[in-house]
Amino acid sequence: MRNFGGSGIYESSYLGKGHRIINIRSVGNGDYGIRISGYSHIIERCTAIDNGGNGIYGGYGCAITGNTVGSNNQSDTDYYAGIYVSSDCMVKGNTLDNNKQNNIYVYNTDNIIEENLVTDSTNGIRFFTTGNFYANNRASGNTTNYVNTAGQTSGGGNYSF
Fold first, then answer.
1. What is the pLDDT of residues 22-68, one digit of tens each?
2. CA separation (Å) from 105 to 82, 94, 100, 121, 152?
3. pTM: predicted TM-score of the whole model, two decimal places
4. Which of 8, 27, 122, 155 lies 20 to 30 Å from 55 when distance is taken between CA atoms?
5. Does residue 152 lie within any of the structural domains?
């Protein structure tokens, strides 16, 4: 998916369920790289680079694993991110770099954020509300590596270098 005026992949219905987005490259789109509303989706081993909005947007109960996400959301929109999740999602093993405002933005509760590398953004991992779990993440070169961690459960192993 390359150079679309809007999003590369876009599921607009919050009733959508069970989509599998695997091994997709979404590059240079005007809005989101991959936006999947709804629930119970898998977004795995994708590349989202140079998109105008979020690199990857996951709704509810998603597994977002093993993706490479960089240089998305170069505007000053506060809630845009390399990866944006709502609730009940697993975000694991992703590599994120230079997503302007946030590498990972966790909007709601009951998410697990593990084993991600987040570098060179304003915020490495930013939690909007309480009630999430995070562990074994690595952060470097962000203005702030971990934001709003009060009220989150840390499983340990979150390092800044």
1. 999 999 999 999 999 999 999 999 999 999 999 999 999 999 999 99
2. 8, 13, 12, 12, 14
3. 0.97
4. 155
5. yes
